[in-house]
Design brief:
Elements lengths: L2 E6 L3 H8 L7 E6 L2 H10 L4 E4 L8 H11 L4 E6 L4 H9 L4 E4 L4 H19 L9 E4 L4 E4 L2 E3 L3 H11 L8 H10 L7 H16 L8 E3 L3 E3 L4
Parallel strand pairs: 1-2, 1-3, 3-4, 4-5
Antiparallel strand pairs: 6-7, 7-8, 9-10
Helix pairs in contact: 2-3, 6-8, 7-8
């Protein structure tokens, strides 16, 4: 599942600089050119992180930050501003900013900050999900590794495992997994076919670790972590 990022910035060049650096496979990017547009968007959509300029038309960035915090305590806020005054930074942090980066900035550093904040929040919200630490994914190779050992999967098995891995705690029914495979042109697989895939996946995982990774939620479906 992609992280939803809101870029609040009135300079198109900076919007492009940021959005072009964000991996399209990891992030779903929305842009607001004014403060009031940003506030309207957060009322109708859920975002994981906001990159927020301070000098904005209509509603200034500090006001946007304050309103964001009133509406959502979990959303991450990175201030990106040419204002380098200590009192401005102090006010931004007091209003709930998670980080403050001054312009001109390094797009690479910004992306690293975004990844770090999202990962840290995930770890804080999911302290018991220890298995995430010994499962690695290589998107380039289309592979998963458990304890650095290759988990050899067919394309269908890979997509099922990737779906579960990228959506921890979410339960997927056999019908949903079947539809996901169908949408990716991996065949029209029925419920029995999904059950067989899960069985085979578990056998392959068991060859590499004793940890029960894929769990069955009776009458509902499968997940990588049971609430």
């Amino acid at each position: 599942m992609k992280h939803k990022i809101l870029i609040v910035e009135d300079e198109p060049d900076i919007v492009n600089l940021i959005s072009n650096r964000l991996d399209k496979e990891k992030y779903d990017v929305t842009v607001a050119l004014t403060g009031d547009k940003a506030l309207l968007l957060v009322q109708t959509q859920k975002f994981d992180l906001v990159s927020l300029d301070l000098m904005l038309p209509e509603v200034d960035g500090l006001t946007v930050c304050q309103e964001l915090r009133k509406k959502n305590k979990k959303i991450l806020v990175i201030i990106l501003s040419a204002l380098d005054l200590t009192q401005t930074k102090e006010k931004a942090y007091k209003l709930g900013a998670d980080d403050y980066i001054t312009k001109p900035f390094s797009p690479k550093l910004l992306v690293l900050k975004i990844e770090s904040l999202l990962q840290r929040r995930f770890e804080l919200l999911n302290p018991d999900m220890q298995f995430q630490k010994f499962i690695q994914q290589s998107k380039d190779l289309q592979k998963f590794f458990i304890d650095k050992k290759d988990l050899a999967l067919t394309p269908s098995e890979y997509l099922i495992f990737e779906t579960l891995f990228n959506n921890p705690k979410k339960v997927f029914s056999k019908d949903t997994l079947s539809q996901i495979l169908y949408n990716e042109d991996l065949g029209n697989i029925d419920k029995d076919g999904i059950r067989t895939h899960i069985y085979t996946l578990r056998k392959k995982i068991a060859d590499l670790t004793d940890v029960e990774i894929i769990k069955t939620i009776r009458g509902t479906g499968f997940t990588l972590y049971e609430n």
